[in-house]
Amino acid sequence: MTDVVESIIRGLGNGSVYALLALGFVIIYKATRVISFAQPSLMLAGAVAVSYLAEVTGFYLAVLLAGLLIAGVALVIERIAIRPMVGRPFFVVAIITLGVDVVVRVVVNAFIGRDVRQMGDPWGFTQVSLGPFVVQTRWLAMLAVTAVLVGLLFAFFRYTRYGLAMRAAAFDQETALAQGISVGMVFALSWGLAGFLAAIAGMFVGTGQGVEQLTWIIALKALPAIIVGGLDSLGGAVVGGLTIGVVESLFQSYQGQLAPWLGQNFAVVTPYVVMLLVLLVRPYGLFGTREVERV
Amino acid sequence: MTVAPDIPTGRSRRPRGRPLLYTSYAQDMALLDTRAKKVWTGLLVLTAFGLSVVLADRSLEVLAGAYVLAIGAIGLNIVTGYAGQVSLGHAFFVAIGAYTGAALSSPPGGRTIGFGVAEIWIWLPAAGLLAALAGVLVAPLATRLRGLYLAVVTLGLVFLGEHVFKEWDALTGGPGVGRSAAVPQLFGVRLDQDGPLGTREQLLYLLMLGALIAFAVAARNLARSRIGRAFMAVRDRDIAAEVMGVPLTRYKVLAFGISSFYAGCAGALLYSITGYVEPGSFSLLLSVQFIAMVLIGGVATVSGAIAGALFISLLQPLTRSLPSLVPFVSADTTVTPNVFQVETALYGLLIILFLVFEPRGLFGVWVRVRNYWKSWPFSY
């Protein structure tokens, strides 16, 4: 029984990383109607930035600086590659972000090289006891930081004028423009926020095992998470991320004994299986808005 | 201008000096509707066949690979360009085709599954059909989804496929080990060995060229048929298409099926050039490469897809020769920046640049050049 709970806590920890990334996807999607396939590269860039900065400034300041740095990179990407495409089909813009992802990743890989870069994080693999359960400290840190960030984000959207502007633009771009909201500012802000969240997620992915060139694949697991939750639901992103994390972790722990015929490392693809199952039942995810199409 | 000529029903000659005056419906719908197109297409095909004698074996192998990739790109163009269903899962269908062809044509009793049917006219359609079946099975999900939801789901296919191929050792040989690919044999003649008809590369080149022409003509005909028009209606506004009487589900399933058929055939042929399949090669990168071919070549044009595939495949030998030209690019994978990184970055950059500056791709560039010379020396 303790195994199950420990496995779930590990899943929640990993899931909160997916949730951070998924929030980035959803924020960009709500503002621009585009899935940014560039998120994985931004996550990787964030992790690498932390690993370099931590040597100079210490870990906590490095995280903050890396977050701002990646937000800046995201702003530049938005300005150069995304803004000129306003009014073009969403699919085309999504493919552009795919191109951006490839380019940024090549640049970042040049900084990683062949070795694994350590983050200099204070948690490492240290464990802590929660009553009868022994869990790694970093899972708890991930959960706590994600909870705080999600709370701040929701407060931002709920109470600030920029949050209100973003909600308005997400609801109806043209009407928002007519009300004097700078939709360009909303685009930039959404990319900046997504970049910041991706960097934090990257930092967490790198804790313990470090960052290497293949780390970016982890960010793709946030895609099933947003589909499970629904593309345009912030709450759905969090729920989807945590669900994916827990399911994956449980499969990691028990699939080897219970269903060995699924093959080794089946846990890696469970996010996609969960996504397919959810979509069979609800084509717009659990909390996504059902599109009403009119001709 | 109001003089109505009696409209001929069948073929008819067009007045001299009026290459764009259509006097019959058949002319308007013709595959090659002007004499210039007929002449130039004929010359192009002849040149392509002639290359098999002129070029060195190494270049022929590269070109043969490019032709096969073009078949795959045409397939992706059918589902994404014509029918408007974004698919990031093309690599998955390519893989199914590659393994079907390999399993059918390998000799039985080896390390991996084999049935010993090396005749190409058996394994090629079989590879296409099995991939098409997979496409049709995926399609019901696809018809319920739209736009980017679909893109992410097809992305999931690639990952699920990768897992299956890595685990199913008996079929795929397992990661890092791989297996022998499909054996091209036509009426008892092994095309992957030097023979009296030509060297191995020449034979393979001619096979791939023939296959490309067949697939390209078929796709072009499909595009101008009732089915093609239905695809375009679905792409432009699916609800409106349904209102006009286009059965959405049927045509989306059809688009996925045909596209996967092309992908399967391309997969089976692609690896018969190198004679070796490895499960790791059917990754997201392959899907992205196909998308790059379609976008760089020109969305919803068959000739564009071919141009894009040639462009991307010929980019590789070009970048591979970079280290000797540019001093700071290294051929060694352990050093940055190396050619592989430059190559990958180029894919990304080209996708971005083409989409931002020339959305119609190479085909659009060609159209612009043609229009410029049509009215030369007048600019309008």
UniProtKB/TrEMBL annotation, chain A:
The keyword Transmembrane helix applies. It holds the Pfam family BPD_transp_2. Its main location: membrane. It is found in: Cell membrane. The chain crosses the membrane at residues 12-29, 59-77, 89-112, 139-159, 180-205, 225-247, 259-281. Keywords: Amino-acid transport, Cell membrane, Membrane, Transmembrane, Transmembrane helix, Transport. The keyword Cell membrane applies. Coiled coil: none annotated. It is a multi-pass membrane protein. InterPro entries: ABC_transp_permease (IPR001851), BCAA_transport_permease (IPR052157). Belongs to the binding-protein-dependent transport system permease family. LivHM subfamily. This is Branched-chain amino acid transport system permease protein. It comes from Nonomuraea africana. The lineage of its organism: Bacteria, Bacillati, Actinomycetota, Actinomycetes, Streptosporangiales.
Automatic annotation (TrEMBL), chain B:
Pfam families: BPD_transp_2 (PF02653). It comes from Nonomuraea africana. Keywords: Cell membrane, Membrane, Transmembrane, Transmembrane helix. InterPro entries: ABC_transp_permease (IPR001851), LivM-like (IPR043428). It is found in: Cell membrane. The chain crosses the membrane at residues 39-56, 62-84, 91-108, 120-141, 148-165, 203-223, 253-274, 286-315, 346-367. This is Branched-chain amino acid transport system permease protein. It is a multi-pass membrane protein.
